[in-house]
């Protein structure tokens, strides 16, 4: 029987050896009910104060660890107390000095000895909002003030603590005195726009998803929704006035006279019955009513109708006039006068070749004349776009210089089966595909500031991001694709009817803006990336009612991982959860330069599909870090508790750090049965939170759980969780730099 057991264990160990890369080489635990001196605690429950449950201060759970710079042993950071802000107002934030002696054989138990503590406090009133102990001289900080999740010790001996209520960085003296106001977290979305500028939302024909397109009402709603630019497509009247219509043909008729598409109610007007004509529009016969056959006065008698009534209804038909460009400029000016907001115009010269042929007018000249007359020539507020090439070149080389204006131009690029009509009219057989090569993009940059591509140039019909944006950026061109629409019929299946997903993909691809029929949606999505700060729902601005802005980081998603870079010059801070707008499962790694006191985005860490959060971050050397990754489960439900190594210098194709599994904490070898819970030579660590990680040497890491005192569940529903300390031996050594993990122990 004994032989069978030994064989089984050996077989099990053999089977596991290929899958595991780590062994428990030391173990110790601290019983749950461990207290330190201090006031009674545990009186708060969901914001209501009752009887204190504990006579003093619980020592645990622990959310961060470093070597103790004052000697042997470690400093462990207490978490924020009793699990939530509204029951932790009497839990004092501390770092505890802890001496650890691991069990290294089954015969001897490990020892954990808790010594003195450093109490975090704000006697100099650096926190600019009200704290729990606001009036006391010491102003001891509590778990209702900050949720402290990780810390680092700077070369000067001061303490940097990562919080997740802000999230904030907190800077303390070595003895726990807050040295400066909490430092917030800038929203470094890292969108790869051409010059790092914020993307713009272009209201395509106004808010055309919600009102008939190209009406003052559609433009007004677009501006209120937060559009940066409104887009008038421009056509000419018989008397040479520019008005906003999608096409010169304002109602298309079938051969038997039925309306097949219309943007105005002209076909219902008996007085204009004889105006319908067949004309060649860009080489194709089209039967209908044409703007250039009506005076402005006649067009003003018409009313706009919905172009897509089956999709968007007819609720607003017959209410709004056809606006002139001058009226649209007046609207923009009115908004500016009332609100100070400087909305821009993004006019399109519609069918320049046709306008010359059919009406004998130069639409590009008319546009510049109108903009000059209306004194709307600020290059920061106008983009002129065209599907043709020749008129843009004429604008650049002749019309604008002659008028003394210099506005940015945008070359529109339609689908590859279509062609710029001026090319076609001149016998040039090339299509829009010819405008997308690297050479062509460079040539476009000679006359235009940007390109406006059909969106499938950016994201193909399989939902894959192409290299178009980066190639256009390489040529120095802005990229403003079209057209983003909320209706499911315009969305690829992968978006699962979520139009914001499409916008986010385009933004992550680096577009500098986009045209959308739904500017409210566009502005909301862009806003996720451009709000100045990353904020959790517990950010003080919300708690104090200062701001009504929405949080863009889930609760309990802040600086769980915080550590000093081995060169001692900066802090690396890894957010525990995903910022709104980022790809699901991707976490921002921020760097705070201690000298310049500036944040930068160091990169993105991708969780495994089973991973829901990170627990800690520890440096190995100047470019490699370890991360604790976990799911949100404990006990038998726990599956994913792992340590990964990632490299700051090595990226996956999606831009996230390459990473390697170092230790599966649910599956560690424990041949000596150092831990009481080990079964069959395998140790597992099924706590919901595991928040302490430190590299001890090239082959050994220290890991400990946060027991969320007085929680249960890790080792059984009725068992109060203890703090377990694991010394984990790695099969393959880390490239551990002498400074990493030690510099913080050296006071200079
Ligand atoms: O102008 C770019 C975008 O508007 C696409 O063209 O006018 O046909 O909708 P349009
Ligand atoms: Ca357009």
From TrEMBL:
Residues 1-21 form the signal peptide. CDD domains: GDPD_ScGlpQ1_like. Its EC number is 3.1.4.46. The keyword Phosphoprotein does not apply. The keyword Disulfide bond does not apply. Pfam families: GDPD, Phytase-like. Residues 199-526 form the GP-PDE domain. It catalyses: a sn-glycero-3-phosphodiester + H2O = an alcohol + sn-glycerol 3-phosphate + H(+). It comes from the Bacteria. Keywords: Glycerol metabolism, Hydrolase, Signal. Gene3D superfamilies: Phosphatidylinositol (PI) phosphodiesterase. Belongs to the glycerophosphoryl diester phosphodiesterase family. This is glycerophosphodiester phosphodiesterase.
